[in-house]
């Protein structure tokens, strides 16, 4: 997966949607059924984003970053995940 540097994720997704429509991969008549099929997934991700915003506003990430850094500094983590095999 590539992250487009000058664009944010929403703009890149919109460009991708327009390219899918423009190339005929998705027909305009299919959009209502397609939207209905993916609505639960989109609502799930919207909920995750809202939880992250609330946690960030509450200072959750600043308060608990010490615990995350402490767990990363264990030698077992470095040996398993960071060193090339």
Key terms:
85 residues, mainly alpha, 4 helices
- What is the succession of H and E elements? HHHH
Rg on CA atoms, Å: 20 Å
Shape, principal axes of CA atoms: elongated
Contiguous helical run count: 4
The counted number of beta strands is 0
End-to-end Cα distance, whole Å, is 24 Å
- As an assembly, this protein is single chain
Question: How would you characterize the overall build of this protein?
Answer:
This protein is mainly alpha-helical. The protein has a domain at 29-82. It is 73% helix and 0% strand. It contains 4 helices and no strands. The chain has helices at 9-22, 31-57, 60-72, 75-82. The longest helix is centred in the middle third of the chain and has 27 residues, at 31-57. The two termini are 24 Å apart. The mean pLDDT is 80.
Short description:
This protein is mainly α. It is built from four helices and no strands.
List the helices and strands and how they pair.
Elements: H1 9-22, H2 31-57, H3 60-72, H4 75-82
